[in-house]
Amino acid sequence: MTISSSLNAGVTGLNVNASKLATISDNIANSATFGYKRSVADFHSLVLDQTRGAYSAGGVRVTTGRAVEQRGTLITTNNPTDLSVTGRGMLPVTSVTAVNSTSGELPLRLTSTGSFRADANGILRTSSGQALLGWPANQDGTIPGYPRDAVGGLVPVRVDANQFEGDATTRMSLGLNLPATDTAAGASGAPRNLTLEYFGNLGQPENLDITFTPTVPATGASNEWTVRIADQAQAGALVGEFTVVFDDSRDAGGTIASVTPLSAGTYDPATGMIGIAAQSGPISIEVGRERVPGGLSQLSDTFAPLAITKNGSPVGTLASIEVDALGMLTAIYDSGFTKTLYQIPIVDVPNANGLKPLANQTYQVSAESGPFYLWNAGEGPVGDIIGFSREESATDVASELTQLIQTQRAYNSNAKVIQTVDEMLQETTNIKR
Fold it and tell me: Which residues of the chain have pLDDT under 70?
């Protein structure tokens, strides 16, 4: 009966507007919740088969969901592990209870922002119990190749605030001028000495003793030096011995003409590096390429160490951690040494709005969202990771209040329809009497 369909349509109108009111209430309540995504309610009409000359109201139904693709404003904080994503993609997290249970694979959860701080076990987690996931780096700071369509390589990010770390020296650069007058006839032939410090595998300082001995000819100038490198950590053992000849032409005067290894060490003319076997392992020392300025030179009458640099550092304690735009979590030690510990990937799905919402602004992959893929931050379709930042709620209170007025009027109108139908049915009953 047409009048009965009007009653049913009015009832469905009350129900869907009640659902709309619930989403508005949720949005306003979470207007100050970091990372909150708006709840949305969409209405869809129901159409019944119609007969000629009569119309039956089908009513309305509602579908609700989250506008996950909508982003809130980023604000600056003072915590380096307050993380947000600029643009598409989300951070991988898991529950701390799953981490503590250590049973099977960790469940993957997604969030667009989080304030991560180390707990008693060093795990970076939010106050709501979400642990940050990442790919662990090798000992040398490089990231191995992990699967991008599986969570097998992801582990909880753990930072031990009390850890010590040293960085062994593997490379040096020797910028030094040798006096040309020392290789001229009549010179004394006295050697020139230099001591270089390096750091061993345990962070201990060690020294290399370098002796530059000129070759003094009977007449003219030889422009030749014998370089010997001894390692104090190996009781003064000879680890490098070379003959270095310098160019005396007008175009390349003072640069290296040739380097010839003698009893120990190697030389690569393509890179200008000599290699020695120190107590801690191989060390490469840049002395310069043939007839190219830089490194060792022989000019005038001055012995001058000009620019001597090295990598490595003594043992230091952890001072702070930071996450860069590429998702690299780096530990910074008080000795000045920095080391990459983890890489935080960005999780992306084909349909972000199809993600299943969970508590604490986290989401789960679903059939509607499509399969996930782990991207490097800043690559492909995903955005960068920003430290010292939080994403505010995507709720616009002014817009929600406007919708609240519209929903209230729609609810009242549907209630009026039900009241009218009730009065008409009462009149029908009176006629039958």
Answer: 1, 52-53, 102, 432-433
Strand ranges in 67-145 using DSSP code E only, listed in sequence order: 74-76, 82-86, 91-95, 109-111, 113-115, 117-118, 124-125, 130-136
CA distances from 213 to 62, 74, 183, 241, 295 (A): 90, 63, 9, 11, 17
Residue 53, pLDDT score? 66
- Give ∠ CA 409-410-414 in degrees, rounded to 5: 115
Name the residue among 310, 331, 306, 330 with its Cα closest to residue 199.
Answer: 310
Beta strands in 324-400 (DSSP E): 328-333, 338-343, 346-348, 356-358, 362-364, 373-375, 384-386, 389-391
DSSP output for 381-410: T--EEESSEEEPP---HHHHHHHHHHHHHH
Whole-number Å distance between alpha carbons of 64 and 161: 44
Q: What one-letter code names the amino acid at 225?
A: W
Q: In Å, what is the CA distance from 332 to each residue of 6, 81, 293, 318?
A: 70, 13, 35, 6
The token pair at 239 is 């680890």
Q: How far apart are CA 53 and CA 102, in angstroms?
A: 68
102-143 pLDDT tens trace:
677 789 999 999 999 999 999 999 999 999 999 999 988 899
Q: Which residue has the tokens 């490097």?
A: 376
The CA distance from 162 to 141, in Å, is: 19
Among 173, 172, 174, 176, smallest CA distance to 305 is for 176
Token pair, residue 116, equals: 């991560």
Angle at 295 between CA 207 and CA 315, to 5 degrees: 35
Contact 122, 112 (CB under 8 A): no
In this prediction, residue 191 carries a pLDDT of 96
Distances in whole angstroms, Cα of residue 420 to Cα of each of 6, 46, 110, 340, 358: 10, 21, 49, 71, 42
Task: Give me the half-sphere count of Cα atoms (radius 13 Å) on the Cβ side of residue 53.
Answer: 0
Q: Where are the beta strands (DSSP E) in 46-119?
A: 60-66, 74-76, 82-86, 91-95, 109-111, 113-115, 117-118
